[in-house]
Amino acid sequence: MKTIVSVLGLASLIALAACDSKQENQVENAYENQADAIDNQADNMEAMADNLSGNAEAAAENAADALENKADATREAGEAAGDAVEDKMN
């Protein structure tokens, strides 16, 4: 996961250097794709939770919630990175 975040960080630096709206979209799309992947992990965790019971089910549901929160944070980071690219263009 850290590698993906590092790659995304590098991609946003490259995008900042290029400074055009296509680059802004690429940065935002990269973060959005990562967030979608995390959401898929959360969906899989929730499906697994449906087959569990008791404390195991609660733990899996909590893990899914944490993944969903991480996906939301990734989307917000993507928006901020896109805005930074846009600000550099102006």
Automatic annotation (TrEMBL):
The keyword Signal applies. Residues 1-17 form the signal peptide. Residues 55-66 have a biased composition (Low complexity). The keyword Metal-binding does not apply. It comes from the Bacteria. Coiled coil: none annotated. Residues 55-90 are annotated as: Disordered. Residues 67-78 have a biased composition (Basic and acidic residues). Keywords: Signal. This is Lipoprotein.
